Amino acid sequence: MRIFGPELRKKGSLELSINAIVILILAITILGLGLGFIKKQFGALGTQFEDVSAEIKGEIIEKIRTSGDLLVFNKVEIAAAIGKPESFYVGVKNTGGEANCFRTYIQCLRALKGSCDPSQPGVPIAVGGVDLLNSRPSSDNEWFQIFDEVNIKGGDVGVFPVKLQIPGKVSPDTYLLSYEIYKSETGDCGSPVWPTSTTPYQSKQFYINVR
Fold first, then answer.
1. Could you read off the pLDDT of 102-116 as tens digits, one per residue?
2. CA distance 152 to 99
3. Is the CATH code 1.10.10.10 the one for domain 69-210?
């Protein structure tokens, strides 16, 4: 039977401690490299999104300048699959000299083959935003996620994202919608004074092909 003396046991313990330290250092180094790589990738991705947003904003501002329209979209045709999120951008120009609050309201007017809401054939329904009478879509009929109210400086163009997700109860079809913008008479969104007339500041009809 072999008997190890105290010095040999001490040497073995020391070698074990050194190995543990080396492994720990390697693990920390690999972890640091991995975190650096991930941070770099996310940073590049964030810069890419900023560049895309700046490019889209520039395109929308140029479209407003050349067309003279006060409300434009960055997409001419909008296609969506039921339950799948889609997005596009909207630009609104404030022709006034001061900052104003702008309110967004979206209606589904009719469908090519069916109706906007199977329970209300032939009836236009609210599908996003809020109108001057504070009418909002029901949760079952909400197709859009948008800023209900936004501030735009005088003479400036505001560009805002619009998220679209068609509810499951909607049938595949081509739908005609109205995108309506209301402008406060005075004041920003902190204390807007809304007009008594329900005529929109600007409105635009557009189509969504739901598949």
1. 999 999 999 999 999
2. 5
3. no
